[in-house]
Amino acid sequence: MNIHLNKFICSALAVGALASMASLAPAQGRSDQIPSFNTTMDGRGTTHYRGRDYRFTRLQVTVQDNRRVTIHAYIGPLSDIVFTGRADRLDPRGNRIMASVESSAEGRSAGPGDGAAKIFMAGRDRFSSVTVDGRDVNDQSGFSLRFAGTSQVTRYDDRDNPDSQGDRRGNGDGNGMGRGQGRQFTDEERWRNGRQDFVMRYTLTLRSDSGARMVVESIQDRNMPNGRVDRQTHGDILKYLINGQAVNQSGHWTQQGNTVTILFDTIQTGGAPRGRKEKFTGHMGNGTLVMDDWDRTFYGRDVRFSFSAR
């Protein structure tokens, strides 16, 4: 009897040891690494934010290498709701990213948030659906988002996102393309007024997290002309390019195929930032971003925007 019992105990221990070894062995064909991507999807979505309900048809999701997450719902031509946070983990099957929501914003109104997001993946750089639930920390109002994608608009991943290009270019002087800053484009506008030549430089930064920024400045040590004819040809923006000041605009951008849309919502002209909405549309080709439509009253009717990548 003791012999049989000992054999049973030894067999059980052996099975337990094998089970323990199997549980310690890495799963084959699975990865818990959270992918980095920047993808925009068309589909059907609803969001509840600060007591109002919205329907929308386009959502952009960005997951950066540092696990920062941006969920960007386009609720109108110049309106959006943005949730930001951090990717916490990838579920064992690798098809769902679990993220915490730390802030939310509508236009220029932003505040801290406390919530959770689930990003259901349909591939390494494509999501199928997204849910967000949480509350605003300040006023305790609840927010939510539901989105089901139908078609992919555009995407970036680590192989071709602007941040990776920035690392390869990085000149480390604070003016180049450092990690997280995005890809820069520049253009210059030159014209002559009487016996004087004038030059304006436009520096456009398109970030991989969908942020956009444009700086307009005179590269000469004198004021821009501010006469009626000059403003008609080169825009009312000339009024702000005085005393060495620059014009800073910020907003966000999207891309569908070769078409790029930039929506600025904030401007700073020497004082505190204020709201001002401007829309640019253009197209990419051979490393050049050519603008097709813009506010010609503010930027000028004779200006031809053709931004070259730096």
Features:
single chain, 310 residues, mainly beta, Porin, 2 domains, eight-stranded antiparallel beta barrel, eight-stranded antiparallel barrel, 4 helices, 54% strand, elongated, disordered N terminus
Described by its quaternary structure, the protein is: single chain
**Overall tally of structural domains:** 2
Question: Structural class of the helices, strands and pairings?
Answer: mainly beta
Q: How many DSSP-defined strands?
A: 16
The global form is elongated
Q: Strand-residue fraction?
A: over 45%
- Unreliable runs: 1-31, 154-181
Query: How many H/I helices?
Result: 4
Strand order of the largest sheet: 1-2-3-4-5-6-7-8
Report the sheet with the most strands, covering strand number, pairing sense and barrel closure.
8 strands, antiparallel, barrel
Spell the H/E element sequence. HEEEEEEEEHEEEHEEEEHE
Average pLDDT, rounded to a whole number, is 75
Q: Work out the helicity level.
A: 10-25%
**Gap from first CA to last CA:** 83 Å
Radius of gyration: 26 Å
SSE diagram, text form:
Blueprint: H1 2-24, E1 37-49, E2 52-63, E3 68-76, E4 79-90, E5 96-106, E6 109-121, E7 127-136, E8 142-157, H2 162-169, E9 183-193, E10 196-206, E11 211-218, H3 228-234, E12 247-256, E13 259-268, E14 274-285, E15 288-293, H4 296-299, E16 306-309
Antiparallel strand pairs: 1-2, 1-8, 2-3, 3-4, 4-5, 5-6, 6-7, 7-8, 9-10, 9-16, 10-11, 11-12, 12-13, 13-14, 14-15, 15-16
